[in-house]
Amino acid sequence: DLTRRAPVAGPVEVASAAEAFNAMAASLEEAEQARRRLLADIAHELRTPLSVIQGNLRALLDDVFPLEKDEIATIYDETLLLSRLVADLRELTLAEAGQLRLDLAPVDVAGVVAQSMALFTAQALEKQVTLHTECEPDLPPVLADADRIAQALNNLLSNALRYTPEGGTVRIIASRARQSVCTVPETDMICIRVIDTGPGIPAADLPRVFDRFWRADRGRARAHGGTGLGLAIARQLVLAHGGAMGVESEPGKGACFWFTLPVTPAPVTFQPRDASYS
Ligand code: ADP
């Protein structure tokens, strides 16, 4: 009985199903490529600390040098780097997969900025770098996980301090987001900027600074114990809040790392139209 048969897909339906299938296959292939790239990156990053540890232990075993504190300290430092790498990778992969638990609450940005400043005051003093804050008065609260926001800001601050030479200045500016600063609409956002007077970043490198494991100068970055994941994590933390992160820089004129956060939506309250009803 022909009338009771399931309807047969016409050429248009078949074509659009094939298109959807191809798109799905392409995105799976892309995900698989990203996974392979991540594994290759991790393997590469693990190799250096492991070979330093192995080399030093081998030399100690072979009595190439006597058991001195310096050599043991080198090995210990490399194990610390490995621990940081593992912790950072966990954080980054959770954030990228959208599995980070955020305790969202209205957060006073000026308070977070003040706390971060306090955290870096000693380091700045030691390095003779001036820390400076400008918070626009009466900033509305943002809906955020205060610890995660502090973590993102601390990451930017720690980089800014590291790259700013003695006598330089690091400024944190918190204000309502403005189109001229950030490429997001002005509405309901707060923008936090960390501006330094360090060497800046060449234009060609700007699109890569947030890539995991990317460093302008591998050797120098390793010397300070960086994992190359700091900015990637900071960006993911901000993205998880519905914000954005970016950088503007001119070589020789310092760098400005910025991020935005959505303002806490105002609670909807019932307003009687006529005062006599209340
Ligand atoms: P790490 O600091 O561990 O190398 P990050 O992800 O924090 O990793 O930074 C990546 C790279 O971006 C750094 O190695 C450095 O080359 C560059 N960078 C970050 N912040 C600054 C800054 N304020 N000024 C100049 N270069 C920076």
What would you say this structure looks like, in words?
48% of the residues lie in helices and 15% in strands. With 278 residues, the protein is α+β, with helices and mostly antiparallel strands. The strands form two sheets. The protein has a five-stranded mixed beta sheet with strand order 2-4-5-7-6. Strands 1-3 form a two-stranded antiparallel sheet. The protein is globular and about 90 Å long. Adenosine-5'-diphosphate binds next to helix 4 and helix 6.
Which tags fit this structure?
binds adenosine-5'-diphosphate, 7 strands, two-stranded antiparallel ribbon, phosphoprotein, globular, kinase, five-stranded mixed β-sheet, disordered C terminus, single chain, alpha+beta, 278 residues
Helix count from the secondary structure assignment: 6
Stretches where pLDDT falls below 50 for ≥5 residues? 274-278
- Assembly state (oligomeric): single chain
SSE series: HHEHEEHEEHHEE
The helix content, as a percent range, equals 40-55%
Bound molecules: adenosine-5'-diphosphate
- Main sheet properties: 5 strands, mixed
Strand order of the largest sheet: 2-4-5-7-6
What proportion of the residues form beta strands (DSSP E)? 5-15%
Please identify the structural class as seen in this structure: alpha+beta
Mean pLDDT: 86
Between the first and last Cα atoms, what is the distance in angstroms? 70 Å
Radius of gyration in whole Å, from Cα? Answer: 25 Å
Shape: globular
The overall strand count is: 7
